[in-house]
Amino acid sequence: MRDKDWIPSSGTRIGATRFVRQDFPWLHHYFGGKPLRSTLSSGIGGIVLWGGRVPAQIARAVARLRGIPFWNLEDGFLRSVGLGKEKSLPISISIDDLGMAVNAFAPSRLERLIAGAAGGPEGDFGRAIREAIIANRLSKYNNLPHRTVAFERTGKRRILLVDQVFGDVSVPSAGGSPAAFDRMLADAVASGAQCIVRTHPDVMAGFRKGYLTEKAATMPGVLLHAEPVSAASILDVVDEVWTMSSQFGLDALLRGLPVRCYAAPFYSGWGLTDDRFDEPVRSVVATRRQARPSLDQLVAAAFGHFPIYRETTGWREIDVFQAIETLAAERARLGID
Q: Which CDD domains has this protein been placed in (predicted)?
């Protein structure tokens, strides 16, 4: 496995907020197996923080005041079979010492890895990952079955509009907004295409509220899709995907579908997507994402080099291909397919 020299070194005593220690009791397995300590404990060599909400902001401020490093944690892009909201253990996490991959307004380690992969020998590695993900029909969450999705045949090209959960940090962090969702919906309707709005799994499960669904329900000709089927099943029957910052756009790219972005997720701005985001995010992203990686080079960075993969039983470190095999086997064991 490639050395990840940006993560805490072995033996580093790690601090975390009470929220992180309570909500992610398995997290210490990624940091030498030792219990995480308070952010105010003496002798810690750094602080880990999860997401971008108030507890993470406090942890970041404490680290800066104490003059110690901090690392931003998120789920990997292949997470689990079940949902995080249902406390399913993740098979991967990302550790970023520079920023957050979802934040388009500042550099991140993932962004640097993608830029570094451009023009390099990573294409074959990335292609193997991409083909394995497609062959096993996987996405970030893999709790939904693969079923044939039947939409009314109209002869028009079919656009999938991806709703996201209201209040999701990734939306404003990527330069998105409720107004941008409205513009995305209006542009799709004006295009004359068959428009399908897909809700987020957390919205489908009743945990959160979405941005698009309520308004789309009142618009003639717009279809709402809340059927509990896998991302792969839906992507089989659409012609392109429009999104704000959802991983659905990445899933579509993996499968060769055109993707339009109305905000700036990490996979946009590299010449692989049709970018429609507004200022100031357009200018900010353009200054940093000047490299032009191939899709497979981006995949190598995002799935191969950036996350850390571990079994969720013995917590042994594994690679991306073992993670793919594990998720596929768990789906089969649970009879989801």
A: beta_Kdo_transferase_KpsC_1
